[in-house]
Amino acid sequence: MHELPESRAPRAAALVALRPRQWTKNLLLFAGIIFAAKLGDPGRWVSAVTAFVAYCAASSAAYLVNDVRDAPADRRHPVKRSRPIARGELASGPALALAVGLALLAVSLTATLGLTSIACLGGFLGLQAAYSLRLKAIELVDVLSIAALFVLRAAAGAIAVSVEISEWLLLCTFLLALFLALGKRRAELALDGVRARPALAGYTPALVDQLLAVVAAATIGAYAVYSLTAHDSRWLLATVPFVVYGLFRYLLLLHRRGLGEEPDALLVQDVPLLVTVATWATACAIVLAVG
């Protein structure tokens, strides 16, 4: 059982409730401008940053709604019980009001990017709401919904900067997000006596391990095809080993050390994994720039 931190002031509690650490998920919105090799276009960068800020606001709005709904269950969870709403540091009313304000901010920012961007954000907010209210309680549908949210992020980033994005890259995004979501479920199953998430009743460690193996293989295959088909240069294929090692490293941490319940935290806490991601990104940037 994790020790609870000292009680936080209202403003500090509200900031923590926004889960800024999980804004790293929205870095995916920059995939369009990066993989389309449009890094030297300032106008597109302004649009990409605008979309990133909008989706950070939208994500935080969804987290607030989710935490208000899940507060009773979170209080029984060894990690989630430290969330501000579960601890009573942030009341439900102010939390929901803040969520509405953030959602409106997200819509206002996205409106500057065009109607298609607004529609994409609407789909994102709608799926987030459906996930928080119902879908996360249904086994398999829960992890597929999470993966779909990442695809919407990637597509939104490409739409915001008016570039095409490879279907294979979107498939890679879906599969990698699905892999991480399954890893999270596997870590949650390992928590002794904790079944705070209803969907866990439909999973077993053996089943999730099989699904992880299938999705990991599919991710590697899809990325290899993308690297061969998406650009004139095929040197991107040289980055496949980084993807393989990253997936294997995550599985090792998941099984040997029981980590994986918070993939975003694991990415910045495990040095080999962090170095792998940074090296992969650097190699991709070099290949795309030269190509």
Commentary on this structure:
The protein is mainly alpha-helical. The chain has 2 domains: 159 residues, Tetracycline Repressor, domain 2; 126 residues. It is 69% helix and 0% strand. The chain contains 12 helices and no strands. α9 packs antiparallel against α10. The radius of gyration is 19 Å and the shape is globular. It starts with 9 loop residues before the first helix and ends with a helix. 39% of the residues are buried.
List the helices and strands and how they pair.
Layout: H1 10-17, H2 31-35, H3 42-74, H4 84-87, H5 92-111, H6 115-133, H7 141-160, H8 167-189, H9 205-229, H10 240-256, H11 263-269, H12 271-290
Helix pairs in contact: 3-5, 3-6, 3-7, 5-6, 6-7, 7-8, 8-9, 9-10, 10-12
- Can you tell me the CATH class of the largest domain? Mainly Alpha
The number of helical elements comes to 12
Gyration radius from CA atoms, angstroms: 19 Å
The CATH architecture of the largest domain would be: Orthogonal Bundle
Provide the residue-averaged pLDDT: 88
User: Would you list the SSEs in sequence order as H and E?
Assistant: HHHHHHHHHHHH
Shape: globular
Q: Per DSSP, what share of the residues sits in E-state strands of 2 or more residues?
A: under 5%
CATH-level-4 superfamily name of the largest domain: UbiA prenyltransferase
- The total tally of domains equals 2
Reported for the largest beta sheet, the result is:
none
Strand elements, count: 0
Helix content class: 55-70%
Class based on secondary structure composition and strand pairing: mainly alpha
CATH topology of the largest domain: Tetracycline Repressor, domain 2
Uncertain segments: none
User: Could you tell me how far the N terminus lies from the C terminus, measured between alpha carbons in angstroms?
Assistant: 51 Å
